[in-house]
Amino acid sequence: MTNPYIPILIMGGLALLLGVGGLAASAVIGPKRYNKVKVDAYECGIQPTPHAVGMGRFPIKYYLVAMTFIIFDIEVVFLYPWAVAFSELAVFGLVAMMGFLFLITVPFVYEWRRGGLDWD
Amino acid sequence: MTAFVPPEIDWAALTPILIVLGTAVLMVLIEAFVPTRVRRAVQTVLAVVALGGALVAVAWRWGVVQSQGGSELVGGALLEDGPALFTQGVLLLLSFAGVLIIADRYQGEDAFAPTGAAIPGSTYEEEARRAGLVQTEVFPLTMFAVGGMLVFPAAGDLLTMFIALEVLSLPLYLLSGLSRRRRLLSQEASLKYFLLGAFSSAFFLMGMALLYGYSGSIRLSEIAKAVPAMAGMDSLLLAGVVLVIVGLLFKVGAVPFHAWVPDVYQGAPTPITGFMAACTKVAAFGALLRFVYVVTPGLTWDLSAFLWGIAILTMVVGTVLAIVQTDMKRTLAYSSIAHAGFVLLGIIALDVRGISSVLFYLLAYGLATIGAFGLVALVRERDAEGNITGEASHLSQWAGLGRRSPVLSVCFALFLLSFAGIPLTAGFIGKFAVFSAAIAGGAWPLVVIAVLASAAAAFFYVRIIVLMFFTEPATTADGRETTVVAGEGLTTVAVLLCAVGTVLLGVLPSPILDLAASAAKFML
Hints:
The complex is a heterodimer.
Chain A: H1 6-29, H2 36-39, H3 61-84, H4 86-113
Helix pairs in contact in A: 3-4
Chain B: H1 15-33, H2 36-68, E1 71-73, E2 78-80, H3 82-103, H4 123-130, H5 138-151, H6 158-175, H7 183-215, H8 220-229, H9 234-252, H10 260-267, H11 270-295, H12 300-323, H13 328-348, H14 352-376, E3 379-382, E4 388-391, H15 401-404, H16 406-420, H17 426-440, H18 444-470, E5 481-484, H19 490-507, H20 510-521
Antiparallel strand pairs in B: 1-2, 3-4, 3-5
């Protein structure tokens, strides 16, 4: 009998091959034309290098939206399986989910009260 | 497929954890609704009351466990037994002192940045400082960290242990970036801590996955049962166990997983450094103790070389590098690494006396650590105009401090002597207990190295004492000198608590030693 973990090993080998292969292929085949934007640090939503204008502040709206999204994202990740197994989990599931929903609302309330949802 | 059975929840047994985490949630709501003026006072009082209340709850549960034995809670996700409750008690006591130091202020300024998001040195930051802004979020964050620490050593399965690890780590990553002064160093510390913490979490998760693949369960007791039953998959088991232990050793700060310790301890706000150095280490050793004692007794032969190597490296590297440091916080950081090595001796012993000695050592080490960092936060620089600025953390700035402020220096010397393990301090009893447990467990070569490392470590502790009491104070060219600020008295209370504890444990150790011994009997 072969070891049941050999398929996993093969899978891991394939994954490694795919990752390294992609990098190697783009290094060999890909054109290398650099410009200023291309070598700049990548930052999503804002200027990557904030200048001292506005007293050295930079907007964090984007991060707040992203984090708010994560709050609700996590909520749905747990709500969906709960909905599928609702009748089986019965009262225990209901109480546990209500507790979870309350706890996840707390940071949202904090964000709202502290002005995290005001765009300007 | 089996039908779902809801787990029995013994709410009474969960009270210590519920008090702390419930208060933390309440504190977030306070941040949202209570006006700025009173927020700070409310948060401080709430934190102190909650930690005190949780300590009382732990004492009550201790009585229950003594009479009825330990039990599994929430379907085995959490355990209530002697070592868990003892560790939780130690954690609550230490974080009580830690919160007092965190809450302390001098001239209305605490140790934290007025606005963490401001670019260091910008006018915006200066304006925020002038306006007297405070980030009272520090308190709920600390409480969440304490909540995670309480769960960590009581976890009965690997998933709960991992969640507790993250709950205690995430607030600490943030807190270590909030130092009021030396902002860049602090932000660097925060980022390093976060990256290496995430790295170590990956180790832990990978180990967990391998152990699940091996035994079909994430429950510690089930994995332990599978160890003698399953043959032919040793590599999976060993890899899993080693990876989980590596994840825990990262948090403990054992060599070679220590690289973050000096940078983070130096960059973080000093009250947070003290809290982190004492409490994180206690919680992580609690979890490591449980994992090693429950899962690995059948693997002693395979694991001993690994654990011995780590213990030797930790003791030697921690001690040697502590000797060459010139910064007080870095010296204490390396000394804490060396102490992690000494505690590992008790864990390697794999013996009931090993458990009780580790528990006692953690209390002794934690008291001295919180106290020492609390005092470091009070020793400041004064420039030529008489303004008090940042901490005077360079060793040379501590010269002659014994003459200017004898009480502080005597307390600091006491904590150093306890670190060094001089008789009549808690550190001596702790070292003695751990070393004798290790000898009983057959690890005498390790004890020889540990004694040599202790002797070498005593050199730099004594050097600091000599510096404070027998050296002339140094003045710098630009007229800066070292001074000691008084604060609002909260640090004084916390430091006195630690000093009294250190002396009491050194002179009359038997009640706590008995307590630790009876805790060890109730390990599930």
